[in-house]
Amino acid sequence: MTQQDEPRSASGSTGISRRTLAKGAAWTTPVLLVGAVTPAQAASGPTNPCQCLVGYSVFGARSTWSLTGSNYSFGMRVVNAGCGLLSLFFSVANATDPSVSYAVTYSDGSTETLTGATTSGGLLVGGTISGTVTATSGKRIASFCATMDVRYTPLGGTASTCPLVLCWSLDNPAAASGYLAPS
Fold this sequence. Notes:
By secondary structure, the protein is mostly beta strands. Helix content is 13%, strand content 45%. It has 2 domains: 3-35, no CATH class; 43-182, Sandwich (Immunoglobulin-like).
């Protein structure tokens, strides 16, 4: 397009022509359509909706931990957002599991796999999974990955169970309580 083809305002400055605007819209529309997800596409999405759950810890809604003796308690915040729009098609019912595997790394660098538990109510879009585990006496947990079974119901489907792994780092392992950061 040449300078003479561009429209000018009364002050003489050039603006965007309708032709240029139409060209831009023509290229943008296919991108928007590709990003849309239909229920049929969602049904063929991940076979494990637990992939849609992600841990988070932000100001005002932080994941927490506390220690009493050798017993750790965790408040792991999760949101059903790891699969973008696909997350809207899954309803997580419950993340209560009496036999959770905690792969822990202690502050001295040693590792161990412990068995603990988790409890939660309905998690629909998000919520808190409470976890407990007992560390080896005298050791402080610095980070952990908790593997638990989560019961979910796909939109219009039958309830199923899938594994969920959440990994966290403790902000100050030497303290008696603090915040968790997804790792």
